[in-house]
# Entry
Amino acid sequence: MDEIVINVENLSKKFASFTAVDNISFGVTKGEIFGFLGANGAGKTTAMRMLCGLSKPTSGKATVAGFDISKETEKVKRNIGYMSQKFSLYEDLKVWENIRLFGGIYGMKSNEIKLKSEQLLHTLGFANERNMLVKSLPLGWKQKLAFSVSIFHKPKIVFLDEPTGGVDPATRRQFWEMIYDAAEQGITIFVTTHYMDEAEYCNRVSIMVDGKIQALDTPNNLKQQFNVNNMDSVFSGLARTAKRT
Amino acid sequence: MVITENITKKYGTIEALKGVTFNVDKGEIFGIIGPDGAGKTTLFRILVTLILADSGKASVVGLDVVRKYRKIRRHIGYMPGKFALYQDMTVEENLKFFATLFNTTVDENYHLVKDIYIQIEPFKKRRAGALSGGMKQKLALCCALIHKPEVLFLDEPTTGVDPISRKEFWEMLKRLKAQGITILVSTPYMDEATMCDRIALIKDGIFMKIDSPAEIISAYGETIWAVRGNNMPRLLKNLREHASVTSSFAFGNVHHITVNKDLAVEALEKYLVENNNTDIEIYPIKPNIEDCYMQLSKK
# Structure
């Protein structure tokens, strides 16, 4: 049996009378690429915030990297990485400063940061850009750097919130190759996306509708289950059943 | 309706637009398609008279964007990429406000926004800031339409929007086109290209190509083969390692490849089998706009 790194049981989150996340349960195994899909407003962000230890559930429980998301939020945070399209790096800091900052935040030692920074800059082919401000990098480079920084401290799990939004097609594909490499190293990937071709790259995909998980399986099984030939149709079929606006 | 000639714009040393020339005809949906940072927003801001180009000429509805900027503003609607309505005003107040700014009333042009507005009307007393993303987008479109513009400029209206809401949004645009409104729309989602009459593929401040989506696809020139197998990541690596495979990219549940003429499908299949791939399927398919964009980017 594969090691379970995210375990969610009957998790709910209410805001006053509104149930944003409605009794969801699922497990994610080590090294898995888990796609977390849903229409805008389906509850993805709320669920993800709880799993990252940023918001407390109203009921139910979950463990992330073995830690309770209600009681051990700081331990959860230390063992995960996070990247979103909107925010990931400090634009007014240089490339190497961003790496050092995030390494430090995640509790890495100075000499370890130094050593691994060199390796990272080399692997990314950024050695000559180390002193550039992040804001002057092309978007595709920023996204690659942001992803590398989010897994720099070797977290057990990395949460990626629409990591490829607005990125050019070639870079989007390179980005997924980086995701595969990370998964091969045993890092679990929890990813949201609005690109349905990217849903095909996940080992398993869950689809949220109105706060509930309405489907969860491998892309192939989902396509068979709904008798369609692509994930776009799977998604459309489910999302159209939504009652929330 | 829109004519531009060799527009350039620099921010410091960064060349945002490096000489952009194109025309948009009346009643057309013209899409400007490319990633973030390609220059889409800069171009829109020049055309809606918010910033000046460094060089080149542009006119909208026959009026020069520099000399006649005040007049142009009466004839166009603009929906910027960032939500720019008044967050503390209600849905209803925002719409009324924008109508008043243009010396008209909501009643006078209600027919234009009706289809869209009825979807957010149940929330008309809600502050705009408290709306969901999809509803904000609908309200912004209503506000851009309420003065009956001849040309609508929509800067990335569907960014960050889920696939269903995106499809609905494009249905709305088609209905507006049917009412004679010319639409310039930008998007980073290449699958939306086919919803446009003509598109420009933009990269690093340059229009790589302007044409109808069908023409751009038929100009691709090479055969694209879709390849699938039991282990897609390994399959991609094997394809890349083959000397006669000229390009290979993941496309959802298949990989798209182009090959040199000397490589027969049977030979490729044999090579893949030798590398322990099973369940191999190889078949020719039509390129899509992403294939075209990547091909043009390489040149």
In short: Chain A is about 35% helix and 25% strand.
